[in-house]
Amino acid sequence: MITSFPQRIISLVPSQTELLFDLGLAERVVGITKFCIHPAEFCRHMPKIGGTKHFHFDTIDGLQPDLILANKEENYKEGIEQLQQKYPVWMSDIYTLEDALHMISEVGKLTGTQSKALEISVQIQTAFAGLQAVSRKKVAYLIWRNPYMAAGSHTFIHDMMVRCGFENVFADHVRYPEITPEMLADANPDYIYLSSEPFPFSEKYIAEFKEICPESIIKIVDGEMFSWYGSRLRLSVPYFRQLLELLA
């Protein structure tokens, strides 16, 4: 049990690492993953405990955390269970904006930063309340190549798509289904969004998808805006507005 506010925090989740910084907790963070990149100057010099799905347990032991922040989807069960034998581990499980706001509130309570957490949550809620969705466009959101993988339902990405007014053409699939070129062609999306993460899609892949769906508009999108569920959500709505203006 956590009996006092933690002073040595490890974050195993990039979006939650950024949240800790924005809550004013930089001096209490002692370790992060190699995928934690925001804010850059802060993350560059922090001790790295491995990746989100492969922890360096000896490094973690050396850091002696009194709180570890993790996430059900982004981290791996066996590693988390091993850490739980030694340390307090707080797990988030996020599929919707409401889940994200609850996580921000809970991290604020855990760390004694409730007022700042509330401030961030209100900023996010206000921004999303003013988001004007466009008429429904059929969208396929790709996160991986070889094999192709898309965002289906019961994902945070899906919730962001719905809030933009998009129809997720793979909403009848749960989580992150593997899809074939034939499945993509049959879905006949108006837009194919190639996410910048976790696979680093770039402009060079557009022609590949144009061959599969000649009538679709293919666009590289910022994966952080669709999938990071911490304080970075304050930047998502302005990004979505720019995206939606191109569809108007």
Overview of the structural elements:
- The protein is α/β, with parallel strands linked by helices.
- 41% of the residues lie in helices and 15% in strands.
- Strands 5, 6, 7, 8 and 9 form a five-stranded mixed β-sheet that branches. A four-stranded parallel β-sheet has the order 2-1-3-4, with helices on both faces.
- Helix 6 (114-129) packs parallel to helix 11.
- It is globular, with a radius of gyration of 19 Å.
- Residues 8-248 form the Fe/B12 periplasmic-binding domain.
- InterPro entries: ABC_Transporter_SBP, ABC_transptr_periplasmic_BD, Vit_B12_bind_prot.
Name the beta content range.
15-25%
Give the helix level as a range of percent: 40-55%
CATH superfamily of the largest domain: Nitrogenase molybdenum iron protein domain
Helix tally equals: 11
The chain-level mean pLDDT equals 96
* Annotated CATH topology of the largest domain: Rossmann fold
Structural class: alpha/beta
Rg value:
19 Å
List its salient traits.
248 residues, alpha/beta, Rossmann fold, four-stranded parallel β-sheet, globular
Topology:
Elements: E1 9-11, H1 14-22, E2 29-31, H2 40-44, H3 57-63, E3 67-71, H4 77-84, E4 89-92, H5 97-111, H6 114-129, E5 137-144, E6 149-150, H7 156-163, E7 166-168, H8 181-187, E8 191-195, H9 206-212, E9 217-221, H10 223-227, H11 233-247
Parallel strand pairs: 1-2, 1-3, 3-4, 5-7, 5-8, 8-9
Antiparallel strand pairs: 5-6
Helix pairs in contact: 5-6, 6-11
Protein name: ABC transporter substrate-binding protein
Keywords: Signal
Pfam family, one: Peripla_BP_2
